Amino acid sequence: xxxxxxxxxxxxxxxxxxxxxxxxxxxxxxxxxxxxxxxxxxxxxxxxxxxxxxxxxxxxxxxxxxxxxxxxxxxxxxxxxxxxxxxxxxxxxxxxxxxxxxxxxxxxxxxxxxxxxxxxxxxxxxxxxxxxxxxxxxxxxxxxxxxxxxxxxxxxxxxxxxxxxxxxxxxxxxxxxxxxxxxxxxxxxxxxxxxxxxxxxxxxxxxxxxxxxxxxxxxxxxxxxxxxxxxxxxxxxxxxxxxxxxxxxxxxxxxxxxxxxxxxxxxxxxxxxxxxxxxxxxxxxxxxxx
Length: 290
Ligand code: PDD
Fold this sequence. Notes:
Blueprint: E1 2-5, E2 8-11, H1 22-26, E3 29-37, E4 40-41, H2 44-57, H3 66-79, E5 85-92, E6 110-117, H4 123-128, E7 130-136, H5 151-162, E8 167-172, E9 175-179, E10 183-188, E11 191-194, H6 205-216, E12 221-223, H7 228-232, E13 236-241, E14 245-252, E15 255-256, H8 268-289
Parallel strand pairs: 7-8, 7-14, 11-12
Antiparallel strand pairs: 1-2, 1-6, 3-4, 3-5, 5-6, 8-9, 10-11, 10-13, 13-14, 14-15
Helix pairs in contact: 6-8
This protein binds N-(5'-phosphopyridoxyl)-D-alanine.
């Protein structure tokens, strides 16, 4: 697998970072994850804009212009011998010669990228949806920044795995925030509901696409706080993320999602949204390759 580290393209196995790197010592860094279909980086500019927002949020000057980023990303995509990829980008505040919390002066940031095969939901997960659990959101107050300080997300994700589930859905003060690595949508009485973008959740790139598609197709939707009661009584639930796309959630804390004959199965709005998403993505790619 190919990596990029501080100006150099090299095999991932040869990439080396100092143990004094502030990403390692303090989780003082930010990241992005860009899905790549048939070597086309999907929504690259939006991911680069969010990277800028994350860097601004931690007062770390962007080491590259958008054009430089695009060139690095396209080159790393070209080096891989697989078509569908996930490009990981990380920028940390670099490696000083000592461990000291305040920002160091004159230290270059560490820029690291690597690409791996894109892993999307399996046909079985697409067909049946996935199981989830809930937990209290124990993260800090800047969940809108995509920082590498992911310990709480890691613990939440492990909780899901230990319960035989795909994701942990987090609640803060009785309201839905998001999944450990996804945004969450409910359908209640035919209306798509999702929380507004604020400091309690990551502004998902896929979340934006889903809301654009709901508007384009005239699907009733409301962006507003979603209570725990609304989450638990939802007719349908789905998660969104760059690698998950639109993925049905069919159980929550061991109980089937939805009501009547639909209970525990991917719902009609979820299926429709997934179809809209796939058509939109394929259309973007057709134009990109034309
Ligand atoms: N995770 N919320 C959190 C906490 C996330 O980590 C992610 C994505 C999302 C969805 O964002 P997007 O649609 O832009 O992928 C929401 C990535 C994929 C990751 O951590 O690898």
